[in-house]
Batch of 2 targets.
Target 1
Amino acid sequence: MRRGSAHLGNRRARGAAGPRVRDGALEVAVLVLTSDAPVRRLNARYRGKDKPTDVLSFPGPASGRFAPAKKSRRRIHSGDCERQEGLGDIVISLDTAARNAPRFGRTLAQELDILALHGFLHVLGYDHETDDGTMDRLEGRLRKRLLAPRPRAGSGDGR
């Protein structure tokens, strides 16, 4: 497992997150896995689904929703990964992302961006399985921004 973190340091990221993020210093721990096996174990343990998946989210204390609403939202045990204060952990399977990217017509980098966004929305408290479509609409708007072509260096865009 490789561990990295995403810092909500810029105004655009905080603005996209909406009112659920008040302090730009909150940390989201991102666990990037090199195979499906660890993700499958976590998915079986916390969601009761014995199969790999692309992304799993585990809200942390700062998310305001760490108290489990159901059995599948239990705290990750220290043997699974190191906990730290913050919004939560996002676990991404590189294997599944690499398989899915071509199916959706995306590069692996784009797929990883989308999975990180999806996980991030979950640790903020959004849930597409139980809400009225709020998460799906927000994710759709943010995906358009995320996947928009970026200007090349020297293109005169001034960014």
Target 2
Amino acid sequence: MSVKHALGRGLELGRSLLQLGLFKPAGRVAAKLRGERLRVSLSTRTVQPQTFLPARFRFFRRSLSGLAAQLQSGAFRRVAGGGAPRNRAVFLAFGVGLGLIEQQLEEDRTSAALCQEIQAVFRKKKFQTPLKSFTSGYKLEDYVIGKQIGKGCNAAVYEAAAPFATPAESGKCSLVELNQKETDEDNKKAGPLRFSATPSFPLAMKMMWNIGAGSSSDAILRSMSMELVPACPQALTEEQREFALDGHFGMVPKRLTAHPNVITVYRAFTAEVPLLPGAQEEYPDVLPARLNPQGLGSNRTLFLVMKNYPCSLRQYLGVCVPNRMQASLMLLQLLEGVDHLCKQGIAHRDLKSDNVLLEFDGTGCPRLVITDFGCCLAEDLGLRLPFNSCWVNRGGNACLMAPEVATAVPGPGVMIDYSKADAWAVGAISYELFGQPNPFYSSEGLESRTYQEQQLPPLPASVPDDVQLVVRLLLHRNTRKRPSARVAANMLHISLWGKRVLASLDRARMDELTDWLLCQSAVVLLKGRGSGGSSVEAELQRCFLANIDLEDLRAAVSFLIFGPRHIRAESAMIRLYNGWTRAAPYESLRVADLGDVNVNLFDLKDTCKRIREAYREIVATGCIPLTLGGDHTIAYPILQAVAERHGPVGLIHVDAHADTSDMILGEKIGHGTPFRRCVDEGLLDCKRVVQIGLRGSGYSPDNYEWSRAQVS
């Protein structure tokens, strides 16, 4: 918006505000302003999206009614009757400011409407099942069952085939073939792997172990209803669909819609337990008595039919190390799958690499799907679970249980919030994707109940900074600082495909980002018409655009463009030589980026403790720390760590503030007290302290006299 237009709009709104404030009740002023803006918008659009404004604009917007009331006061009437030029300038400035706020509001309306339109376009295209549709398969006799391909705590999985089920497209490959191809490709240093072999068993059949549910179909379906959460609408027969499936908590469980990163159950039926290959050796105790006299199982159980995937994520990572781009795309797929669950009020609660299946697209990129919903939370209460007793089931995987779940204490009215629990588990699995051991596994690993962020091991230096940032944020103990799966996925999308727009982006203005969204939409629509439309990358881009939301997008941008990321980006511009001073510091010094120090935004004392402990480790190595960022308070814990090793130190301090107050807002530790505390603890050699640029005037002589007394 040009300055001339801003001034004109500001004067117009300021004049309207003056007139309305003088002659209308205060309540009608704000209503009038809102009404005029709505009428203007309605003339150009039929859809009115929700307004999104940065906090500073929302504050001024909410304050309009209060300001309008003040305009009716007698003092204001006198000013309006004939005020000084200075007063008129004040109201001109107010009008300009209000005009800028309204301009920002209009830009946000436009951006929100654009996001809704993009959503509508990409939500029209439904996810296509990887298998051709079929109408049979509700009986065990309809299938040919092959060898066992997996076994868990409550089920065994077998490969299966049926004449009516042929794969539409497949990336099936055995682990032996995969390992051999990976070795061959490494030796040849060729391009990405490609897998297009058609399996003779396109289906996988999961046979649940039924120990206590009885042998009636109704009882079995009620007891194992959570396994049916990812079932398609045709998975059950019409009779079985009418059963009231109670779920774990006495309510009908939800059903998932199809998604490329979530398993789909094509058929679910009950049948008598057969004697399948390896049953007597692998799981004899859960067989019924007619097959094993010592068995504890019932005669009938639940069978689930789904697509047969080559391997689990855990098996794949055991023989292959994905490259940086593939690992980033795999992380993004997990976040998209978790976001899909959250949007439908479902928490998986047992995410681990064993419960993620894998196949390959036409380019050899791994495609991931989340499976095994036996421990999921899929009730009408959404992602919150009443935790009034220790007998309430928190979930299945203790190692990857989010801190807010693991540390919950049962009691009256206690609720466990699972809205970000699966996202935390994805953060832990990320280490495996990038070739590192999961930090929460093994007896020597971290515990989610007690770990601190600074204990997390670093990811390899080859992992992009933005990806490392996403992983660190996902593993925050504090859910307020942890992004949702949607926001984390948006961060990766922008990082992977929007680097250029990110470099020039301002959080308050979305023009560049909306232009990029339009370009991405066009590119993805064109890709969808070609052979590349079924690739993992194309699917991810469609998911991103189908779920685009201005508020979540702005949150993702805020994480990416502010703070340490920009400090690092700008420091990369530093040249190696200064022609004026003839200094070449990098020839005589070794400089390393040692990462960030995690702080506690809600506890200043804990933040000081974390900074002190981090700098103890740095100073102990003999390094000289150079710190960027933070407020004045950080000088105190840093000097504590330095003085522990070197004794009292000198100080050159350049600032307008001396930071030698004894108290600030009733607290001994704060941004105005760090050097007072350092002197109290003997951390500074006061005869070697120089403060430059201090403000000449102050509120009292106390601090100045105290400073002088330290060197006398």
